[in-house]
Amino acid sequence: MIPQSFITDLLNRVDIVDVVGRYVQLKKGGANFMGLCPFHNEKSPSFTVSPTKQFYHCFGCGAHGTSIGFLIEYSGMGFVDAVKDLAQNVGMVVPDADDKIPPLQRAQNQAQALALSDAMTRACDYYKAQLRTAPNAIEYLKRRGLTGEIAARYGMGYSPSGWDNLRSVFPDYDALALVESGLVIDKVDEEGNKVKRYDRFRERIMFPIRNVKGQVIGFGGRILDQGEPKYLNSPETPLFQKGLELYGLFEARQAIRDAGYVLVTEGYMDVVALAQLGFPQAVATLGTACTTTHVQKLLRQTDTVIFSFDGDKAGRRAARRALEACLPQVTDDKIIKFLFLPQEHDPDSFVRERGADAFAQEIHEAMPLSQFLLREVSAEHDLSEPEGRARVQFDAKPLLQSMAPSALRLQIVRGLASLTESSPAEIEGLFELAKPVAVARKAPPRQGRPQPVGLELQILRHVVAHPPLALELDESALLSFSHFGQESAERLVQLVAAAQALGQNGGFAALSQHLKLQGPDYDDIIAEIASEPESDFDSVKLWLAGAVRQIKMDALKQELNQLFSSGLTSDQVGIRYREITALQDQLLREAQAELTTR
User: Fold this and answer.
1) Cα(416)–Cα(255) distance, integer angstroms
2) Which of 1.20.50, 3.30.160, 1.10.3470, 2.60.40 is the CATH number of 380-431?
3) Is 17 left (phi over 0), alpha (psi -120 to 50) or beta?
4) Which Enzyme Commission number(s) are listed (predicted)?
5) What fold is seen in the domain 244-365?
6) pTM of the entire structure?
7) For 61-120, what is each residue's pLDDT tens digit?
8) How far apart are CA 304 and CA 259, in angstroms?
């Protein structure tokens, strides 16, 4: 758990204009910066970035957030990765209570990662330069229908013939980073002594693999003519793990948002060929089965994921593994489909032979996950026999057990029950599904906390916009909030405590990031503040002091009106009456003193 104090300090150090400006072209417009929103299609800019609030807001689609939120939404990073990325850029080290690595070793790991990243970047630049002077490689790409524009967009290159071409790039060709990054291979003798070092990639079209930050972390190399292996990937390194990365995701992010879905294919060439043919929203797994991490990354980018596989046995096996990786991530607001092309086609050949419209129609008619699951478990069994139906249920059990309770799981259970002549409740009971949906009685919905209105809403808004205001509220002010009612008072006290915890340097960005992690209760207030000009702190501070005095005055007046019917003795009434009037006089004096100092 990253401490809130670190998040506050981080957001105070980074500049959201710099963070967003890496991905969006921004122009100064008054106090803010403007640009075209990266989260929806628009022709005139409605996306604003406020350097004073350290917040972005789109007036078109309503997207808003901090520097952390922007990286999460735009790059598909998780919260921790976004924090680490920002921290690295400003020289901060993210504290981790579970991190048992000694500081010296952590520093060594960071230095190693920087060395490997630098080596990969320099190699990528070299391969790109070599492609421009390699007629055979250029001719190959032209035969595949690729233009220079597509090659440039994906940073494609060429590794020429020769065993040690990278020696011209790296003066220290024996550097450890070269072998650790997978760029070179050390040949050793039987005693384990290094005999020679040589380049891993030779005479191959080079596909740089980027992470979500755009850094080159690995390569895929495609042989030009005949030879084995046809595709050669970088080995697993501290930068690159095949089961965690997707080729083309960095380049496809905006296209995925524009299209509303991502198309997952089987190889590098599928991705670049589809981009050439009008489908830039394609990505590929890196010569390995689809993993749960892959699915998580994809669902951060879009609500619709479509897997495209060849129709042969290998394609079907790959689709089954993708299905198994998807099931733990399935929710009712996400759509996952499977597209199977004819055996004689891959996506490239299909589009070239039948056209982009035909391929788009295939995508539209792709098989939903629920249908594919039921087909997978039932295709090879005789449903007319009890044994066949039992085997279908046996095969389906681990798949359904990996799903969280949801409406979609219930629909699949009902489909399976129909196939196997059972009831949904019988299936859920037999499969021991967590939190059965078909047989569970839903608890009556809880009455939500009343929405803030009037003076309470104004106080909430001002504290969210200017968290240091909370430091002005003492215990008596917090007690006065009971005038709004118990639930409203609890809401105000909780917000004030969160704002006070940020300290004097706490800002709107830090508090809104904290509130967002707690849930959606403050989303509307945050969006309103983000869309409005920044209010003057001193003016709001005076208003808040007056508002708290007014709340206290109203509470005292109400108590005074009820005092004589409170059941107290006459002496007790007299004592409390004098206390109330004294408090009222004190509040009036404070108000008059404030007026004279303005």
Assistant:
1) 36
2) 1.20.50
3) alpha
4) 2.7.7.101
5) Dna Topoisomerase Vi A Subunit; Chain: A, domain 2 (3.40.1360)
6) 0.71
7) 889 999 999 998 887 788 888 998 898 877 788 886 555 667 677 677 778 888 999 999
8) 10
